[in-house]
Write a structure and sequence with these properties.
The chain has 11 helices and no strands. It is mainly alpha-helical. The chain has one domain. Helix 7 packs antiparallel against helix 10. The longest helix has 35 residues. The termini are far apart.
Length: 279
């Protein structure tokens, strides 16, 4: 891609151009940014409640947001807003599943399989309903031979940065081959792909069409950081927001879901396993 506002029809900007050319098929909405700011602000506020330790109130608010967005899509006829609300819906669903999922195992790591395995259902439905092509979603394995070692190196650096902020938070008891294999599989094939499809393939893509690339990157990065509010550490939120901005920019430039998924996954492997147990 050349400029930040490329109009290649396979990019979100290209889709936005096509949407503008089809105006009149769906009713126009005035003050579009207000319609989009309301759910984003509500989700951010709910996550700040978790940050402040008010988990029950956050659960109630996320449930109300989920209901509000769901019913709103029935009454708002503008297709852009409808699909953007469908993208936003995934965030309260993720949080509610995370907080309400019973513990099937003593080790939190293996409970992630149930959380993210369940989330794969609404995520795949949402990705299909958004109307994006496979290339727009980032479903390509081009340059994967280069991206794998690059992702390991970047994941190490980002994981080390998070370790310096949060400290020790291992999800495995030791660095045995089975533990490392389990951690790697869960992070790379469950956690990171689901989160990256939500934030990059769906939400960032949709907001790029509606608002443009810069605003989309800012909004998704902030929400990505806030969705890590459970640590109760403002530095962690800011750091993960910056990581989200980095991943979002890489996704924008490469349209490679495997790249951002691998970086995210290896970052988690280093942060939740290798670094705290080596030091």
């Amino acid at each position: 891609m050349g400029t930040f506002e490329s109009l290649n029809m396979e990019t979100p900007e290209g889709m936005r151009t096509k949407t503008q050319n089809l105006q009149g098929r769906t009713p126009e909405v005035k003050n579009k940014r207000i319609y989009l700011a309301a759910p984003a602000a509500a989700i951010a506020f709910a996550e700040l409640m978790i940050y402040s330790g008010r988990e029950l109130e956050a659960i109630v608010l996320h449930a109300l947001i989920l209901l509000g967005l769901s019913f709103s899509t029935m009454f708002i006829k503008n297709e852009e807003i409808q699909k953007t609300y469908q993208a936003f819906i995934l965030l309260p669903i993720l949080r509610l599943v995370d907080l309400s999922m019973p513990l099937f195992y003593e080790e939190k790591l293996y409970n992630l399989i149930f959380i993210y395995g369940l989330m794969a259902i609404p995520v795949s439905i949402a990705a299909t309903n958004q109307g994006f092509t496979g290339s727009q979603l980032g479903m390509t394995f081009k340059k994967i031979g280069v991206y794998i070692p690059f992702s390991i190196l970047v994941g190490l650096l980002l994981g080390a940065g998070e370790f310096l902020i949060v400290g020790e938070n291992p999800l495995i008891s030791d660095l045995s081959i089975l533990n490392l294999l389990g951690l790697t599989i869960i992070m790379i094939f469950f956690v990171s792909p689901v989160e990256e499809i939500i934030f990059r393939s769906i939400l960032q893509n949709r907001l790029e069409i509606v608002l443009g690339s810069r605003e989309a990157l800012v909004i998704t990065s902030i929400l990505f950081g806030l969705m890590h509010s459970g640590y109760g550490n403002i530095s962690e939120i800011l750091y993960i927001s910056s990581v989200g901005a980095f991943l979002g920019y890489l996704f924008y430039k490469t349209r490679s879901l495997p790249l951002v998924t691998l970086i995210h996954g290896f970052m988690n492997v280093f942060f939740f396993g290798i670094i705290p147990l080596l030091l």
